[in-house]
Specification:
It contains four helices and seven strands, in the order H-H-E-H-E-E-H-E-E-E-E. It has about 240 residues and is α+β, with helices and mostly antiparallel strands. The protein has a single domain (about 20-80, about 100-150, about 165-230), classed as Hotdog Thioesterase (Thiol Ester Dehydrase, Chain A). Strand 6 and strand 7 form a beta hairpin. The radius of gyration is 17 Å and the shape is globular. This is HotDog domain-containing protein. It comes from Petromyces alliaceus.
Length: about 240
């Protein structure tokens, strides 16, 4: 349950309207903002950490007016227990047939306002590497919900508060991405990330990237499917 996690950036509600306003004009995003089972939190990887350089790519390089000017994370209020079984890994030779958005509630929604030309590969299309980065960031936050690090003594980090990471030592060990449709830019991107299994310090995560259908904006379509294996390491790494 979320209530068992010590207070942190991962469960403190984000209430500043200035952070929510950029997404109010997007019907799909606004519906998620009003969803009773989710609430917004600060996105840890978007906070600059100059003393360590951590997250410089996502909080700096990709946080400009022509790349990803706005990013918002919504977390699930109540987390279900995780399966202790090793989930099956999708076959790399499976046909990349477009699928419907999953009906299973994700642990994390990440909303991203993609700009142009900073994230473009082909014209009006997000570069696949940027899409992979955003998936990886959303997955990291989903895993963090289930693996908060031990509480730290904040007095030992006076002047270096950004080092009090809620993520601990979490690393992507394997990331399998299926690009099914181009991601149109500029536009809103929604990433659904869900932890589907845990065995000790090993986590398996699924994610879908959805975007409004250009021909039918009321409908969301899946542009990308992904599965990843994450590892929580010890301090001796």
């Amino acid at each position: 349950m979320a209530d068992s996690i010590p207070p942190s950036i991962m469960n403190a509600p984000l209430t500043e309207e200035s952070s929510l306003h950029p997404f109010r004009s997007h019907p799909h995003a606004n519906r998620l903002l009003n969803h009773p089972e989710y609430y917004p939190i600060r996105t840890w990887s978007r906070l600059p950490k100059p003393s360590t350089g951590e997250d410089g790519y996502f909080a700096g390089t990709l946080a400009t007016s022509f790349t990803i000017p706005h990013c918002l994370t919504l977390r699930r209020r109540w987390l279900p227990p995780l399966s202790a079984a090793h989930p099956s890994w999708p076959s790399p030779t499976a046909d990349p047939v477009s699928s419907e958005p999953s009906t299973f509630p994700p642990d994390i929604f990440m909303l991203l306002d993609l700009a142009t030309p900073g994230v473009s590969g082909h014209p009006s299309t997000a570069h696949g590497g940027i899409v992979a980065t955003c998936i990886d960031e959303a997955m990291s936050l989903a895993v963090t919900l289930y693996s908060p690090p031990p509480e730290l003594d904040a007095s030992e980090y006076k002047g270096r508060e950004e080092e009090l990471t809620p993520r601990g030592k979490l690393y992507t060990s394997q990331l399998d991405i299926r690009y099914k449709r181009p991601v149109t830019v500029p536009g809103l991107l929604i990433i659904r990330a869900k932890v589907v299994g845990r065995v000790g310090r090993k986590f398996w995560v699924r994610a879908q990237v959805v975007q409004a259908d250009e021909e039918n904006p009321d409908q969301l379509i899946v542009t990308t499917d992904a599965m990843a294996f994450w590892l929580q390491t010890t301090s001796s790494l």
